[in-house]
């Protein structure tokens, strides 16, 4: 099963939903609540996939929240709250659950979106945590995955690659940075996504049938211990990838390429198609 | 692990959260979004616990939504949307997933809260679906679990017991009925919960240290094939249990007892303590 294909087949039927202002397919959905708009996304953390059984349980809880709040950053939203469900193996010690929820609670409150509801169940499988984050969009509207334009700079916050060495447990979702970018770039900020599956694959979600992203791999900001290959493929960077017609300040982001006419989605300057480089969903 | 105790220990630390108007512990939490209020609840369906592997997948999806939307009914809220995550066994056929999501989508739209986001992951465990429902509270405010008063009638919608014969897959969340009850009873409607774990256990959540619910089991509206014992213990009725100082119309609910001074939480008229009767969370 390929997650994206399956979700697309499911959601192809979900068009023109009453009250839904951003439908499935972006980092978050958006609905109207009376006069307000609300962004909402759900994301899962599976022990054995995203962390191991020996990962510190507080760090597991923190990561479950951080992964989902990274979606808020990708829309330039502001967190308002979240709920978290847990399905844990039948004989899981209460202390372990308590530590996971403790780590999650601390992180959610630090980032302005406190946990205000939850559900706990048990099964024979590995622990699965599902976090639903709620956020408000910026006044000018959420930044979407769509909107790329020819000639845009392709930009990324922070550093890429070798996340497994520790970054995947300690990263801060780029909520503040996204808001600063929107403030500084305004309408020049055309589209944005967070890098969870890998630069190549996630960048492909910004491309269109006519426009491709051309990446100069010599410009990639490498994390300590990262290779160029890893920076393109590793994933779990939780950095913001965006295109903009204006250059962002160097303190906030690095320009790594440009948007050109072409149908290859994502290519390097030497012509390698990297659209599928990244972590494949099983 | 006992779900309620664990959640309570976790949420004991979640007091005075900024923007949270109803904290963890009720059927839904509530937060402020600018000028509006939003109700939110998360609920899981685990294959092997709430349904079997041979349950029709469309019915599984429908039930995942219905369980969570029953929480909306318990607050007398109005659905606005939902998101659903799925963690399924690694080699699950796409068709099965598609059918589950199809059943969920149909139900969610029928009840006015369309699915507008989702996440899919895989693991070695059984399939787990987590639904987060969003709703608006009634203008007079959500009906809480707290607020019971001495002399109240204890009332229940529909019928109880033997849900396993089919009702647990076919029930409609009592969203409309809750709103009618609130309309008709107004401030006389003191508190409400939906019956998922069993009448005895769920009724105990409405009791206080000074006030107990006294149930006349001869008045229990039995579902076809149900025994009195089953009506108290079976659970998965997804009916509304509420207390009111005015009698509800017989078309909407049955009076099954009264609220009296006492510390036994939930007792029958012959003195049996049934506060713990119901499905115990493993």
Overview of the molecule:
The structure is a homodimer of 282-residue chains. The first copy, chain A, has 282 residues and is an alpha+beta fold. Chain A folds into two domains: 115 residues, 2-Layer Sandwich (60s Ribosomal Protein L30, Chain: A); 116 residues, Phosphoribosyl-aminoimidazole Synthetase, Chain A, domain 2 (Alpha-Beta Complex), CATH 3.90.650.10. Helices cover 25% and strands 28% of the residues of chain A. The first copy, chain A, has seven helices and twelve strands. In chain A, strands 1-2-3-6-4-5 form a six-stranded mixed beta sheet, covered by helices on one side. In chain A, helix 2 runs parallel beside helix 3 and helix 2 packs parallel to helix 5. Chain A is globular. The mean pLDDT of chain A is 94.
Short description:
Two copies of one chain form a homodimer. The first copy, chain A, has 282 residues and is α+β, with helices and mostly antiparallel strands. Chain A has helices at residues 3-11, 57-74, 94-110, 167-170, 175-185, 199-204, 228-233, and strands at residues 20-22, 29-33, 36-46, 78-89, 115-123, 128-136, 153-156, 189-194, 211-215, 240-244, 254-261, 266-268.
